[in-house]
C-alpha cells in the first residue's frame, strides 16, 4: 500500500485540568478529501494545531508521506507541504490579492521583489485549480467566497500538498458553498489532499471521500465511506444523540410589539448609508430572521439597535419607549440581550475567568451586583448554574474563557444573555462554529424563551437555521430590506438568490 499523505498515531495532548486528545489515530490518503467531524471541545482544533506545528503532542507520532517528523512550528509544517486555511481569515484589506498571497514568501530577482513572476504563478494556480481571483484586485471589497479563495491560494503558493480547511463553509451562502466544493474537487483532481473540518454533516457527506469522527478527545470512527453512512449516524457518533433540526412548532406570536424600527438610517463617517431606511417590527413571542451576505448592513443595524452606532435618522421604539438615543447600558438594563457576531472581540474577555465573563454587560444587575457593589459570590454561583444548564464543558469557573473551545465559549455567552428574563434578544450568528449538540441546546433555549414571550432578532449565515427558526424572514441587501419571504415555503436556494441580488437588481 502506498504511503499515506498524513498518519497520526496515538496522539495524546494534555492541558491543565483537561485531556484534549487521547490516543487519536487518523490516516489521510493522498489525493482525497477527508472530513473530520466532532462537536466543539472534542479535540479537533488541538489535533489540527499539532498537525500544523502550532503545538507538540505529549505522546504519539506524526508521519507525513511515510516519514516520521517532529513539527516545531507552522514553518516546519509548511516546509513539509502542510498548509492551513483558518476559519477566521488572516488577510490585509489594504493590500492586493497578489501582495497578500506572497507576503512573507516574496520571490526575488536581483535583490528586488519579482512581482511579474509572482503574478504569473498566481494566475497559473488560479486557472489550474478553478480559483478565479484577479491578483491585482484590492482585498477590501472582496466577498467572503473570494477571500477564502485568496487564503487557499496563499497556502498553495507556499507549496502545500495537504490543505487543512477549518470550518470553510461557516460564512458562505449556498452558491458559494457549491463553488468551494467545485474548487476542492479540482484540487483533488490535481493530486492534492484536503482535510476538511466541519459541523455541517450534509456538506461533509456531499464532498468527502472519507470521514473520521472524534468525540471527547478520541477517535470513535475512522475512514467511514460517505456512501455507507447517514447524517443521523454521524450525529450519533459525534454526540451520542440524533441529529437536531432547526424548527419552530406552534406559533407563539402575540399582538404586543416589543421592537418597532421605523425609517432607520445609519451612515459611515464619510456619509455613506450602510443601513438605508430600514423598518421592521418584532412582537413578543416572535423570532424575526434577517438573511444577508456579510457586509450588507446587518452588522451596522445590530450595532444601532444596541446603541453602539448612532442613528442618522429614523426611530427605534422598545416596549413603546423611544430608545433611539439611549446609551447601550440603559438598553441592556431595560432587558435587551445581545449575542455578538464575534465572540472574541465583543463577547468575552479571553484572559478573564468564566465568572467575570458572566458579568459582562450585566455588571449592574443581580446576581452580579448588590446595590453599588459587585457580588462575587452571586456571580460565581450563577456561572456554575449556566455551565450546568448549557453544558459548558470546563474544569471550573475560574479557568480563563480563552481556555474553552469555541462552542463552549458560545454556550457561556448564550447562557449569560438568556439569564435575567430579557424581553428582546438580538442574536448575531448564535450557532456559528457550534457542533450539533450545542446547536440543539441553543435552539431549545430560543424556542423556550420565545414561548415565554421573548422577541428575537436572529441574524445568521446558516440558511437552514434562518428558515427553520424564524416566524418572519427578511432579506437585507446593500443596507435595505429588499424582500420578506415565508419561512414555511422558501428554499435555501431562493433565499441565497435574494441575498446576492439575483432577484433584486
TrEMBL record:
Major subcellular location class: membrane
EC number: 3.6.3.17
Top enzyme class: hydrolase
One Pfam family from the record: ABC_tran
A molecular-function term among this protein's GO annotations: ATP binding
Keyword Metal-binding (UniProt): no
Membrane topology annotation: Peripheral membrane protein
A GO CC term assigned to this protein in UniProt: plasma membrane
PANTHER family listed in its UniProt record: CARBOHYDRATE TRANSPORT ATP-BINDING PROTEIN MG119-RELATED, GALACTOFURANOSE TRANSPORTER ATP-BINDING PROTEIN YTFR
Protein name as catalogued: Ribose import ATP-binding protein RbsA
Organism per entry: Actinomadura rubteroloni
Amino acid at each position: 500500500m502506498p504511503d499515506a499523505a498524513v498518519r497520526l498515531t496515538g496522539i495524546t495532548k494534555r492541558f491543565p485540568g483537561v485531556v484534549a486528545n487521547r490516543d487519536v489515530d487518523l490516516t489521510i490518503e493522498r489525493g482525497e478529501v477527508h472530513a473530520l467531524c466532532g462537536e466543539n471541545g472534542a479535540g479537533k482544533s488541538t489535533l489540527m494545531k499539532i498537525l500544523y506545528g502550532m503545538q507538540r503532542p505529549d505522546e504519539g507520532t506524526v508521519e507525513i508521506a511515510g516519514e516520521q517528523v517532529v513539527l516545531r512550528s507552522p514553518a516546519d509544517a509548511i516546509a513539509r507541504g502542510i498548509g492551513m486555511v483558518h476559519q477566521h481569515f488572516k488577510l490585509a484589506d489594504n493590500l492586493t490579492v497578489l501582495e497578500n498571497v506572497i507576503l512573507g514568501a516574496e520571490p526575488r530577482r536581483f535583490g528586488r521583489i519579482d512581482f511579474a513572476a509572482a503574478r504569473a504563478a498566481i494566475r497559473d494556480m488560479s486557472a489550474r485549480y478553478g480559483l478565479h481571483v484577479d491578483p491585482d484586485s484590492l482585498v477590501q471589497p472582496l466577498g467572503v467566497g473570494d477571500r477564502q479563495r485568496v487564503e487557499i491560494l496563499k497556502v498553495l503558493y507556499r507549496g502545500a500538498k495537504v490543505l487543512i480547511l477549518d470550518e470553510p463553509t461557516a460564512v458562505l451562502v449556498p452558491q458559494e458553498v457549491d463553488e468551494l466544493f467545485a474548487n476542492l474537487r479540482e484540487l483533488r483532481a490535481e493530486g492534492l489532499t484536503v482535510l476538511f473540518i466541519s459541523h455541517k454533516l450534509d456538506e461533509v457527506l456531499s464532498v468527502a471521500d472519507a470521514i473520521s469522527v472524534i468525540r471527547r478527545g478520541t477517535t470513535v470512527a475512522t475512514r467511514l465511506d460517505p456512501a455507507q453512512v447517514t447524517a443521523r449516524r454521524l450525529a450519533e457518533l459525534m454526540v451520542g444523540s440524533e441529529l437536531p433540526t432547526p424548527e419552530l412548532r406552534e406559533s407563539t406570536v402575540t399582538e404586543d410589539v416589543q421592537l418597532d424600527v421605523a425609517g432607520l438610517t445609519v451612515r459611515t463617517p464619510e456619509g455613506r448609508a450602510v443601513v438605508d431606511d430600514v423598518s421592521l417590527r418584532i412582537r413578543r413571542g416572535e423570532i424575526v430572521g434577517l438573511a444577508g451576505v456579510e457586509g450588507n448592513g446587518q452588522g451596522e443595524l445590530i450595532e444601532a439597535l444596541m446603541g453602539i452606532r448612532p442613528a442618522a435618522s429614523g426611530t427605534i421604539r422598545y416596549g413603546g419607549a423611544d430608545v433611539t438615543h439611549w446609551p447601550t447600558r440603559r438598553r441592556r438594563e431595560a432587558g435587551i440581550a445581545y449575542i455578538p457576531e464575534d465572540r472574541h472581540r465583543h463577547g468575552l474577555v479571553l484572559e478573564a475567568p468564566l465568572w467575570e465573563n458572566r458579568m459582562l454587560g450585566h455588571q449592574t444587575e443581580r446576581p452580579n451586583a448588590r446595590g453599588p457593589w459587585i457580588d462575587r459570590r452571586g456571580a460565581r454561583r450563577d456561572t456554575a448554574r449556566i455551565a450546568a444548564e448549557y453544558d459548558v464543558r470546563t474544569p471550573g469557573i475560574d479557568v480563563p474563557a480563552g481556555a474553552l473551545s469555541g462552542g463552549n465559549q458560545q454556550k457561556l455567552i448564550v447562557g449569560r444573555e438568556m439569564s435575567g428574563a430579557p424581553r428582546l434578544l438580538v442574536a448575531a450568528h448564535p450557532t456559528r462554529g457550534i457542533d450539533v449538540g450545542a446547536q440543539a441546546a441553543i435552539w431549545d433555549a430560543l424556542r423556550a424563551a420565545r414561548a415565554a414571550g421573548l422577541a428575537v432578532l436572529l441574524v445568521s449565515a446558516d440558511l437552514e437555521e434562518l428558515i427553520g427558526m424564524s416566524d418572519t424572514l427578511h432579506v437585507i441587501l446593500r443596507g435595505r430590506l429588499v424582500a420578506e419571504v415565508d419561512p414555511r415555503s422558501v428554499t435555501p436556494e431562493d433565499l441565497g438568490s435574494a441575498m446576492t441580488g439575483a432577484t433584486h437588481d
